[in-house]
User: Which sequence fits this backbone?
């Protein structure tokens, strides 16, 4: 049996000219912005492979930036992304690098937020507008944006994660992918957990109250199938 | 998914291709019939807008190397009349408009891809307009086009980088041919004959975009693709059958696609991209190598 949905074939609704170089780029930007907390004040984008080679003609640069400002792949504002960024006072730059190690359509975002934090997020456009976020602040992930994700920051002490998963079980939420980063010197860990269903606000509130949890938020699925 | 199985199952349940596809989608993705139709309504709105977007004034691509042909062609058919009948002429204008809208960073529906986005809407809309078919029929035809594309995706592929342009503009033409055949009352078998004929007509077509941009030859291949679709639908409606069944044609497309060298699969290293003029145009956009 085929895995394709009808909407993988007809769709998505998108701004042209390329599903991988434009729609996928907008989705990458949008997902990166959702992964960081706080307002983005500056972003450096390092393009690899065919993103680096042909971004000008495909509007990849505009689409990445538009996505970071929250625009969807079907938003006609993508075309004026540079003007919008200027108006918002968002600093941005693009550099091309040919590392060859990543998927051909890969971008690394270095994002500064207004609380003064810096985040590094790497992702690839995998075709047909689909994406994968492969690293966030050094942590390897496999996040497609097609499912809901719970993001937490918590004290790196025993029991916090099991407390959270127990709560999820109580609410009958099934966990897909789960990644935990503990490579912070400050004793803070980050967790990225894909869930099959959307968490309701009551559950998120309970997770926030788990001793040791500093922050918990949900990124709802970015799109369902092809149709944005 | 295979066409012969779809046909068997439609026969067993005495249903048509659109209904088969809706039921399958409900089963596979768990969304309701209403939600499926609602999403198609939205996509159809976008398709209609793109099919007309570039007709009334010349529209340039973002790179600046192409554009204005949809407008040029539309003015020509208005003033002098096309060499062809009303349906193919309107379809060519719509297909060019859709493809130019895409190249200008306008809003389109990938169908099955962005590069080939002009073909299916153009064939369906031009036919519906000339024959006064209701919007509901247009949506049902679009769903049939999705079924045909899904079978190709399952057994070959729909992207130039993997299968060449036969997989993009060829698949789009097959989807459109089946959809038009369906709209005009062709039976389930005839729809797949239409699709098979459309692919056969462009089997082996390479993907060779100048400068890697979805413009040359892509925009004109949308115009050629839609006429291929209408030709194939017309043949099937007349009762002409494809000697090679749809599933085998798709298998042939897969093996031909696999046999194509990488330089003819979207890398912009061969075919038209690697001509003197192709290289010159590329340098105009990206600067000298
Ligand atoms: S030539 Fe290549 S990029 Fe252009 S429409 Fe065909 S498959 Fe797509």
Assistant:
């Amino acid at each position: 049996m085929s895995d394709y949905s009808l909407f993988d074939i007809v769709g998505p609704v998108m701004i042209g000219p390329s599903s991988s170089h434009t729609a996928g780029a907008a989705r990458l930007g949008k997902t990166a912005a959702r992964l960081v907390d706080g307002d983005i004040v500056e972003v450096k984008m390092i393009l690899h492979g065919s993103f680096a080679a042909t971004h000008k003609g495909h509007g990849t640069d505009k689409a990445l930036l538009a996505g970071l400002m929250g625009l969807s792949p079907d938003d006609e504002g993508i075309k004026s992304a540079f003007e919008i960024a200027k108006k918002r006072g968002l600093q941005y730059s693009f550099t091309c690098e040919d590392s060859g190690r990543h998927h051909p359509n890969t971008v690394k975002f270095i994002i500064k937020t207004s609380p003064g934090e810096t985040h590094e997020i790497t992702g690839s456009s995998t075709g047909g507008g689909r994406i994968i976020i492969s690293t966030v602040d050094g942590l390897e992930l496999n996040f497609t944006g097609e499912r809901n994700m719970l993001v937490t920051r918590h004290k790196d002490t025993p029991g916090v994660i099991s407390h959270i998963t127990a709560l999820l079980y109580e609410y009958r939420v099934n966990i897909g992918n789960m990644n935990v980063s503990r490579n912070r010197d400050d004793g803070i860990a980050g967790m990225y957990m894909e869930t099959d269903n959307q968490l309701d606000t009551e559950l998120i509130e309970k997770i926030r109250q788990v001793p040791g949890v500093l922050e918990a938020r949900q990124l709802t699925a970015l799109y369902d199938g092809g149709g944005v | 998914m295979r066409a012969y199985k779809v046909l068997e199952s439609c026969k067993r349940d005495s249903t048509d291709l659109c209904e088969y596809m809706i039921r399958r989608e409900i089963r596979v993705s768990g969304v309701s019939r209403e939600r499926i139709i609602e999403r198609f309504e939205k996509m159809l709105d976008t398709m209609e807008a793109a099919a007309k977007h570039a007709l009334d004034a010349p529209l340039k691509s973002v790179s600046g190397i192409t554009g204005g042909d949809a407008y040029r062609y539309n003015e020509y058919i208005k003033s002098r009349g096309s060499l062809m009948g009303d349906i193919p002429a309107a379809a060519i204008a719509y297909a060019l408009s859709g493809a130019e809208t895409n190249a200008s960073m306008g809003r389109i529906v990938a169908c099955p891809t962005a590069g080939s986005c002009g073909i299916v809407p153009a064939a369906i809309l031009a036919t519906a307009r000339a024959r006064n078919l209701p919007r509901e029929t247009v949506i049902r035809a679009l769903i049939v086009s999705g079924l045909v594309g899904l079978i190709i995706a399952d057994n070959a592929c729909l992207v130039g980088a993997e299968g060449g342009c036969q997989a993009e503009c060829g698949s789009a033409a097959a989807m459109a041919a089946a959809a038009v055949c369906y709209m005009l009352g062709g039976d389930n078998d005839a729809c797949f004959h239409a699709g098979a004929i459309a692919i056969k007509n462009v089997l082996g077509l390479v993907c060779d975009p100048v400068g890697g941009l979805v413009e040359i030859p892509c925009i004109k291949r949308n115009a050629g693709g839609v006429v291929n679709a209408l030709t194939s639908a017309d043949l099937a409606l007349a009762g002409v059958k494809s000697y090679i069944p749809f599933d085998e044609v798709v298998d042939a497309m897969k093996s031909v696609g696999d046999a194509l060298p990488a330089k003819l699969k979207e890398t912009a290293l061969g075919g038209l991209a690697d001509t003197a003029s192709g290289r010159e145009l590329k340098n105009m956009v990206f600067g000298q190598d």
About this structure: The first helix of chain A runs from residue 6 to 9. Chain A has seven helices and eleven strands. Residues 32 and 223 of chain A are 15 Å apart (CA to CA).
